[in-house]
Amino acid sequence: MVKIMSFLSKKKVGFFISMLLSLAIISACANSEAAEEEDKTTGLSPDEILNTAFKEEFPLQYESYLKNMSPEDENTSKFVEEIEPNLPILFLNYGFSLEYNLTRGHTYAIEDVIDIVRTNEDSIGSCMTCKSTAVPVLIDEMGDDYWGASFEDEIVPRTMALGEGHEVDELGASGHLAIGCSDCHDPVTMELRITRPSFTNAMERRGIDVTEASKNDMRSYVCAQCHVEYYFEPENKKVTFPWDNGLKPEDMFEYFENQGLEEGFDYDWIHSISGAPMLKAQHPEFEQWSYGPHGEAGVSCSDCHMPYERVDGAKKITSHHWGSPMDNVEQTCRTCHSDKSESELVERVENIQESHLDAMHETQEHSVRAHYYVNRMITAGAPEDRIEEAQWYIRKGQLFWDIIAAENSDGFHNPQGGMDSMRTSSDASNQAIRIAIEELTKLEIDFDELEEEMENIIQTVYKEEDPFLKHTHATNDYFPNVLELEEQ
Ligand code: HEC
Ligand code: HEC
Ligand code: HEC
Ligand code: HEC
Question: Which positions carry the signal peptide feature in this UniProt record (predicted)?
Fold first, then answer.
């Protein structure tokens, strides 16, 4: 971390001047090209939601968008050793222990949400919210019934019907309605716009009116409609962002412990090893970025993920191929950090990500141990109030690592924020373990045996090669499923 923090401290002044200059150049170019298009309106309907409908008027952006379809980009499980091998234990009794994959291109979003084992007959409309251009239409048609409607029986068929009559083309069976043009652009003026009410409402509760947003803010706000933490508000299952107290992990935890509980949102699931009432975090890229070095400096998501590119010989467009900025360091990072070579920048990012992943493995191990320790408290008959106390620390520990683990940059968007949150997480998990040790000592439990059993069960999960079967090894006779105990 020391290395990272000292980055840029040399030649800071020179850097700032060159950065201001390059920003000025970028915005000057953008302005002049935008100006040409300014009084143009498209021939499209204001209600247009098909991606293919934009092809004729915007062939270059459409062509760029098609690059999100890359056939070699197959779904990859996060459960492998190098990524997060503890997840099948940590999410036990919840869909995320069954299947959890790395992200893919926007054009695959509908396909991926339908195909995953996690969506089933109990899934609701809210699951489609960040996947399809059809969503604003469905919300218009169905009102608040959209959120809680049956995903399989109502939302998927209605979504597909909106694309009916459209040929299956290079975007595949559902790509013409996957995250696309109308999610971020007004089809008539092509101005950036917000289409998801959850974002507008959450910002309003923080006193921010998104209709007044600057052009630069909009370059991040369009992404913040989806790349955020959310939960299903219990009354009508509406997608809601827990932002009333701020965007940091501690602010969101405070929200869940107060406003969340008050409105009846107790937990996402009950863990079957420890019986703890758990919260699941979702991809908070916007939140982590917002108080990281780039968010604080006003560097937008699009600056790094949608660089300008020359196509068709000379024309300059905004790339619509969302992926890793590290595939194009020259047009992303080096537009501002021109004093650093490509390899230096790559190395910075790799260093951040490596130390981040090391810390993540460590903090998740504390969380795993806490679950098994509390499991032993339950089977050994420790006092109920002490079990509950320990379970609360497990819940806390889990949310503080999960916010960071679910964030997809592996620490880059906010290196320090990630480390701080993981430290809070480890402290909470260790607090749960301390409570367990106190009680188990009174009950004269054999700690050598406990440790050995724990090591064995963890290794059995690691060694299972089929990601879909890993979760089946996370409980055994020594560490039984505590929810089944209660039923007996
Ligand atoms: C996730 C949001 C998002 C989606 C989806 C999206 N765009 Fe964009 N688009 C942007 C952003 C951000 C810019 C840059 C705007 C700016 O800075 O003024 C942009 C710019 C543009 C421009 C202005 C010219 C240029 O290249 O900068 C056009 C035209 C455009 N997009 C067309 C499309 C088309 C066609 C689609 C669908 C195939 C699409 N966009 C999908 C976010 C999006
Ligand atoms: C309507 C919701 C939505 C919007 C708006 C949106 N995204 Fe996404 N994004 C997603 C989803 C969902 C995925 C994962 C898709 C999958 O794995 O099937 C994703 C994936 C990604 C990925 C990973 C791609 C890969 O190949 O792994 C990047 C990078 C990304 N988005 C960046 C952005 C940026 C930058 C913006 C704003 C300019 C943005 N997104 C706007 C929903 C959205
Ligand atoms: C200063 C540049 C920068 C900014 C600003 C930035 N990102 Fe990133 N982002 C990165 C880098 C670097 C990575 C890691 C890429 C890698 O590992 O190859 C990344 C990773 C991601 C990923 C995961 C991509 C994948 O392939 O799985 C998503 C999604 C994402 N960013 C979304 C966002 C969103 C949304 C914003 C704005 C709220 C944002 N980023 C702001 C540089 C940036
Ligand atoms: C639009 C301009 C811009 C882009 C693009 C950009 N940066 Fe930055 N970067 C900044 C600014 C501004 C800061 C904050 C400077 C400071 O506080 O010293 C910064 C800070 C950093 C830092 C230091 C963070 C810290 O905690 O001290 C690193 C590392 C970094 N950038 C790497 C990258 C990488 C890698 C990319 C490409 C993925 C990138 N930047 C893209 C403008 C940019």
Answer: 1-30
- Residue 354 is assigned to a structural domain of this protein: yes
Residue with CA closest to ligand 3 atom 5: 301
Q: For 472, which DSSP code?
A: G
Last residue of a domain, one of 294, 309, 338: 338
CA-based angle 6:83:354, to the nearest 5? 15
Residue 479 lies in a domain: yes
Domain for residue 224, yes or no?
A: yes
Distance CA 404, CA 285 (A): 9
Atom of ligand 2 at shortest range from CA of 111: 18
* Mean pLDDT of the 436-442 span: 98
Position 2 pLDDT exceeds 80: no
CATH number at residue 480: 1.20.140.10
As given in the structure block, the two tokens for residue 236 are 């009508």
The least confident of 23-37, 307-321, 356-370 is: 23-37
pLDDT in tens, 114-156: 877 667 778 888 889 999 999 999 999 999 999 999 999 999 9
* Domain CATH code at residue 332: 1.10.1130.10
357 and 316 in a single domain? The answer is no
Give the end of a domain, one of 338, 359, 376: 338
User: Residue range 98-124: average pLDDT?
Assistant: 80
The C-alpha atoms of residue 75 and residue 153 are separated, in whole angstroms, by: 25
Is 92 domain-assigned? no
Cα angle, residue 187 at apex, residues 182 and 190 outer, rounded to 5°: 100
471: Cβ below 6 Å to ligand 1?
no
Domain that holds residue 216: 44-78+100-269+276-338
- Among all bound ligands, the one having the nearest atom to the CA of 417 is 4
Residues 174 and 309 in one domain: yes
CB 367 within 8 A of CB 425: yes
Same domain, 53 and 30: no
Instruction: Point out which residues pair with 232 in neighbouring strands.
Output: 239
How much of the chain, in percent, has pLDDT values that exceed 90?
75
Amino acid in position 2:
V
How many domains would you assign to the chain? 3
Q: Closest Cα to atom 19, ligand 4: which residue?
A: 294
- What's the pLDDT at 486? 62
Whose C-alpha lies nearest to ligand 4, atom 35? 345
Q: Residue 212: CB partners within 8 Å, gap ≥ 6?
A: none
Residue 42 to residue 449: CA distance in whole angstroms: 71
